[in-house]
Specification:
Layout lengths: L22 H9 L9 H9 L6 H12 L6 H19 L15 H36 L13 E6 L4 E5 L5 E4 L1 H6 L7 E3 L5 H32 L10 H8 L5 H23 L5 E5 L2 H7 L3 E5 L15 H8 L2 E7 L4 H21 L9 E6 L5 H5 L1
Parallel strand pairs: 1-4, 7-8
Antiparallel strand pairs: 1-2, 2-3, 5-6, 6-7
Helix pairs in contact: 1-5, 2-3, 2-7, 5-7
Length: about 400
């Protein structure tokens, strides 16, 4: 406390016995993070759903594990563990390894700052792993034909199935049927629209669409948590991909925020339109990968397009294909930077900044979720997007 006109008297902290535990253990205790082994089902199912993003060898080993068709060799198990750890860490910031940490050094301010950062990482790691554990529980309930927790919400729309037409549909506010594809179901989650499969549809159909919904929602939730973690612990600026539907509606009420909302809605609309196409029309041969906050803010691309097929081998003169043509066909991932700015000067400046980043993108992409082979700047005028969004 402070006495008026007198010296400042500070509370003297009680003397504590120094802990002999490693810094990581101390911080984990304070955060409440459980150290028990995580349920593996959810992790494997998310990887299986994203198998096109994995190298072919990884796909083969993953299928052997999922199908229980054979025991892995020690070399295969070692390869899988390492590849799984790298994929989850780069994509979602989830680590399965428990390496001992060094004590945090430096002055008191540095120690407090680093301890806060470490607490933040552990807190978000716990949230992400708990979300995957929830997925594991729901998939187990689906296997056992029990009630699924996520599908109890009254905010969800009922998804029906037309057995004659082999298609899904919902009933809109006017009482009319609106046909949906798988791509519509998974992409609508980006707009806060969720579905519960109708219990009257054939069980095999119910199981397939329910599993797709559960995995899609879990993966997107973990991605959002990772973006929030980067914002909280690394200082990566908040980006539109983290803005929820309710927050967008609040921003929309403020005319001063219309420019920001227009950019967020336009980017999301383009990304999710391409996602719908990739699921509903798989013959187009591409997939969409959402970018992290780091990629969006630092590397300047909003999302990635991934070719589902690529050539093997090397280009040789005998096959009639030039090296350039071979490389163009082999290319797998392209980072997309969108702009909707109709003014030429701001658009030109944004493009110039983006082009200046291309070399740095190539150098730094190895530390992101997935490297990109090239980047493209795309101008899409969307003057009326907010009118349609409302």
């Amino acid at each position: 406390m402070e006495i008026k006109g007198g010296p400042k008297i500070e509370n003297v902290p009680q003397t504590e016995t120094p802990s002999t535990e490693p810094e990581e253990k101390i911080v984990e205790k304070e955060s409440g993070l459980e150290t028990a082994a995580e349920t593996q089902r959810g992790y494997l199912e998310i990887m299986l759903d994203a198998k096109d993003e994995l190298p072919e060898r990884m796909q083969r080993v993953l299928m052997a594990i999922i199908l229980h068709e054979r025991d892995l060799t020690s070399e295969e198990q070692s390869f899988f563990d390492k590849a799984r750890n790298v994929w989850w860490k780069e994509r979602f910031g989830v680590s399965f390894e428990r390496r001992p940490r060094q004590r945090i050094g430096g002055g008191e301010k540095v120690r407090v700052k680093e301890k806060k950062r470490l607490l933040g990482k552990i807190e978000y790691t716990a949230k992400k792993k708990n979300r995957v554990k929830q997925l594991s529980r729901s998939l187990r309930a689906l296997d056992e034909e029990k009630q699924i927790e996520e599908f109890n919400s009254e905010e969800r729309q009922t998804l029906f199935y037309d057995d004659d037409k082999k298609s899904f549909y919902v009933i809109d506010n006017s009482g009319q049927k609106r046909v949906l594809g798988i791509g519509d179901v998974v992409s609508d989650y980006a707009w806060g629209i969720t579905y519960t499969p109708d219990g009257e549809m054939p069980y095999s159909v119910f199981r397939a669409i329910a599993k797709r919904i559960l995995i899609n929602e879990a993966r997107r939730d973990v991605e959002k948590l990772y973006d929030e973690e980067l914002f909280a612990t690394q200082g990566i600026s908040a980006v539109g991909s983290r803005v929820g539907e309710k927050d967008l509606e609040v921003l929309l009420l403020s005319e001063m925020q219309h420019g920001n909302v227009r950019g967020i809605v336009s980017e999301r609309a383009c990304r999710e339109l391409l996602t719908r196409i990739s699921f509903n029309h798989p013959s187009v041969g591409f997939g969409v990968e959402r970018s992290t906050a780091f990629e969006d803010v630092e590397l300047k691309y909003d999302f990635k397009l991934r070719k589902k097929r690529w050539l093997r081998g090397v280009a040789v003169a005998d096959n009639g294909m030039s090296v350039k043509d071979y490389e163009d066909n082999k290319r797998k991932r392209i980072g997309i930077q969108l702009t909707i700015n109709i003014a030429r000067k701001p658009r030109a400046k944004k493009r110039k900044d983006f082009e200046a980043m291309r070399e740095e993108i190539r150098e730094r992409s190895s530390v992101t979720r997935q490297p990109v082979d090239d980047t493209k700047f795309v101008y899409v005028p969307m003057r009326e997007i907010l009118t349609y969004y409302k």
